[in-house]
Design brief:
heterodimer; A: 5-stranded mixed β-sheet; 9 strands; about 45% strand; B: mainly beta; 7-stranded mixed β-sheet; 4-stranded antiparallel β-sheet; globular
């Protein structure tokens, strides 16, 4: 089972920031938080990951709470092309057997509206 | 670079037929994966190969076999297809198992 909890759906106005929450209250010390998205019918696309510090790249920012029990993915200026299902995944960094594999839940369906 | 490619894009099988889904990556990645995605669900791992010459079962391996042919190619075989295997199949690769995964476009399989 996925170790994360996400709202099933969210709406966002085009040009505004999209803030996608994720709860991972049972996260272990050796687990990273990963975010992927899946645009309709396509393969998932990696967005960003982090351990405990906030991270930013050209696609998004990741804010992880100090206790690491939750995080927020921020798309600073959402466009219609950001409409997708967003998956929050926790995953061990010290890969051993199946422990490092991605476990996808149902994610959050983000709809960006004009 | 083409990234991760999968063939075929679409396939219809009859129950009991066999087929092999092909996957190749040109990113010199060591690890490769096969997932399936049923309607309205997240992806589930079928098999993975942490490095050339090794394969391991994932969450839902029953009814499937895999071959890591070389570093570039990782195939998934259905020996006797069943309607329950109707799904979209995604292949992925990563530089090492701990790194982010890159996904192919998927194969849409229907078993009648």
């Amino acid at each position: 089972d996925a170790k994360t909890t996400q709202p099933p759906s969210m709406d966002c106005a085009e040009g505004r920031a999209a803030n996608l929450p994720c709860n991972h209250s049972t996260i272990s010390g050796n687990e990273y938080v990963y975010w992927y998205r899946q645009i309709h019918s396509q393969g998932p696309q990696y967005i960003i990951h982090g351990l405990k510090n906030n991270e930013t790249n050209e696609m998004a920012s990741l804010i992880i709470t100090e206790d690491r029990k939750s995080s927020t993915l921020i798309l600073p200026h959402a466009t219609l092309r950001d409409t997708a299902v967003y998956y929050c995944i926790v995953r061990a960094w010290n890969y051993g057997g199946s422990q490092g594999n991605l476990i996808f839940g149902k994610g959050t369906k983000l709809s960006v509206k004009p | 670079n083409a990234g991760v490619t999968q063939t075929p894009k679409f396939q219809v099988l009859k129950t009991g037929q066999s087929m092999t889904l092909q996957c190749a990556q040109d990113m010199n990645h060591n690890s490769m994966y096969w997932y399936r995605q049923d309607p309205g669900m997240g992806l589930r791992l079928i098999y993975y190969s942490a490095s050339e010459g090794t394969t391991d079962k994932g969450e839902v391996p029953n009814g499937y076999n895999v071959s890591r042919l070389n570093k570039r190619e990782f195939s998934l075989r259905l020996e006797s297809a069943a309607p329950s295997q109707t799904s979209v199949y995604f292949c992925a690769s990563s530089l090492e198992a701990v790194h982010e995964q890159f996904f192919g476009p998927g194969t849409r399989l229907t078993v009648l």
